[in-house]
Every structure is written in C-alpha cells, then in structure tokens.
Amino acid sequence: MDREDITQEKMQAVFQKIDTNGDGVITPTEYYRFLMQHGDFHMEANQGQDFLGADYNGLNEIDFPEFERAVSRWYRNKDSNDPDVRLVESIFRRF
User: Fold this and answer.
1) What element of type H or E holds 26?
2) Contact 30, 18 (CB under 8 A)
3) Of 8, 66, 70, 75, which one is least surrounded by beta carbons within 10 A?
4) Hey, is 82 helix, strand or coil?
5) How far is CA 80 from the centre of its chain?
6) Within a domain: residue 4?
7) Residues 83, 60: Cα–Cα separation, whole Å
8) In whole numbers, what is the pLDDT of the chain averaged over residues?
C-alpha cells in the first residue's frame, strides 16, 4: 500500500467506521471492538499499547487529528516493525 492509497476521504471513512456512535472520538471500547471484528486481535497480547500510542493528548479517546497523526506516523515508519505502525497498516489494508 502506497501513500497515495490513503486519501483524506479514506482516513475519514475508516475513522467513522471505528467511531460507531458518531460522537467524533474513538473510545477504547470502539477501537478494540473494531479490531476484534476485523482481524486477529487479542487484547491480552496487546495490553492496550496501540490505543495509548495514538492517544496523544492523554484523554483516553482518539479524535480525528490524533487519528491523522497516527496514520502519518505509519507513512514515516512504513518499513518499521513498530506494532502501532503495523496496526494502522493492517486497518487500511482492509478498507
């Protein structure tokens, strides 16, 4: 997947898919429910580090600017083995 594949519209669509109640933020519950429905996610193995890595302001929710920042981090670190980077990549590959 190339940088060109991730448009603003695609980011917005993925964000809205995760934000099931439409309040403009992704809560840990929404986030982990989405991951469990779309892949081989196991909460015990992950221990919440991926969510905390994207929650830059520490409010225990991810707003759209934080989501964009996490996606941008993936762009910059596309070849790394960072679990947060791999998670973002796997989400966008599904949509």
Assistant:
1) strand 25-26
2) yes
3) 8
4) coil
5) 16
6) no
7) 19
8) 77
**Domains: count for the chain:** 1
Residue 9 counted as domain residue: no
Write the single-letter amino acid at 23: D
C-alpha distances out from residue 17 to 10, 80, 81, 92, Å: 10, 26, 25, 12
User: With b meaning 16 or more CB within 10 Å and e meaning fewer, what string describes 10-32?
Assistant: ebeebbebbbeeeeebbbeebbb
Domain of residue 63 covers 16-94
CB of 84 within 8 A of CB of 77? no
Check which CATH number belongs to the domain holding 67 and give it. Answer: 1.10.238.10
Question: What does the pLDDT look like over 12-46, one tens digit per residue?
Answer: 998 999 999 999 999 988 988 887 786 655 554 45
Which tokens go with 82? 């960072």
